[in-house]
Specification:
- It is a single chain.
- The protein is an alpha/beta fold.
- It is built from 14 helices and twelve strands.
- The chain has a domain of 69 residues.
- Helix content is 44%, strand content 16%.
- Strands 1, 2, 3, 4, 5, 8, 9, 10, 11 and 12 form a ten-stranded parallel β-sheet that branches. The protein has a two-stranded antiparallel ribbon with strand order 6-7.
Amino acid sequence: MSQDRVALYLQDAHELREGMKIAQYAEKHGFEAVWQAESRLVRDAIVPMAAFAAVTERIKVGSGVINNWTRNIGLLAATFLTLDDLAPDRIICGIGAWWDPLAANVGIERRKPLLAMRETIEVMRRLLNMENVTYNGEFHKVKGIELDVVHGRREPRHVPIMIGATGLKMMEMTGEIADGAVLNYCVPPEYNHEALSALKTGAERAGRTLDDIDRPQLMICSVHTDKAQAMDGARWMLTQYLAQQPHIAKASGVSDEVVKKIQSILGWPATKEQIKSAMPLVPDELVQRITASGTPEEVKAKVREYVANGCTCPILYPLGDPYLMIEVFSDGYSE
């Protein structure tokens, strides 16, 4: 394995037990982390994280990302304490501000997202540091609580907290208060310039530099010896995401007109037939611009572009054969 950092991203495309095998394969091939998604109402992140942690020995296991609205802060800290019990010093907490319309549809009013995130991270850090916490914030009000470990390790837990930020204000705050930023996917490599500038501003506010902020980045990776097949794999995913997560469409520069056309075809949840009929609206140029899709050499070249634009560790979401993708990147992506 070269010095190139690389990680794996899993959502719900694989049976859970298959995901466990994929995580083991990634560990065997030198990947540094496996991240589990939690976005649509399909699969929570915590159960798969525990499953991956239980069948591996070295690879880090991250949430990519959970949200800061649906778990009480005491439970959130206790959950990551428990994961750290299972895999000491291998757990990463990736957390984001969620998105509408999904949040609104389940009754969550996402207001003051910056303040809500700041409070979540402050209280969670103190709890994982095994402090007794009283906190009277706008979103979190706790009174004399602590992680009540009677049996087991009482020492502070080392769980890096990474914010999955997309907007620039959240990115700036990430530079100020988090251990790192989980940069989003479905964006062109040059999107990172603004993101890094915001991270740097926030880092300097806290007396840090940009180098102190880890910047792993999610990337759709559709690799196949047949380029057309690889492109269609990514196009399928993009069609669904552009309709369901408008903030990603905005960040990737997709026109409102295209998004509205796709949304007019797709229901929620979208059926395979709807996705297939909307796929032609997503052109090859867009697929190539915001994903790593194509032959092994083409996907490696695209990943290098993201790294050249500030990503510190690609988190690759395999569309197609995950074992092939892991093998392609087992020796890194340097030329």
